[in-house]
Model the fold of this input.
Amino acid sequence: MVKYTILDEKIILEINLFDIQKPKKTFKYSDIKKFVKTHRKNLNLTQQELADKAGVELRFLRELEQGKEGCRIDKVLQVLKMFGYTLVAVNEKELSN
Done:
C-alpha cells in the first residue's frame, strides 16, 4: 500500500533523491478531505472561492472534501498547492524505520 505524504512544497524541491528524510507528517488519502476543509475554513474561503483560485470545478472540491475516492491526483495537487503543500509517494516500510 502506498501512502501519500504532504510536505511543504519548497522542501520537496530541495530534497536530494538519495538523501530523503522522513516526512514531517503523513496522511492516508482519506485524511486529505479534513486537511483541505480545515485549511480552506482557516483562510475564510468558501468552496467556490477556493475552487476558483485553485482552477478546479466546485463539484470536484466538494467531492474532495467529502472524501470521494478516485479523485484526479493532478487536481488534488492544484488544491494542495493553494496551501503550499504537495503529495509525495512514500514506501510504507520507510515510514516504520
Confidence is low (pLDDT under 50) at residues 1-5, 8-20. The chain has six helices and three strands.
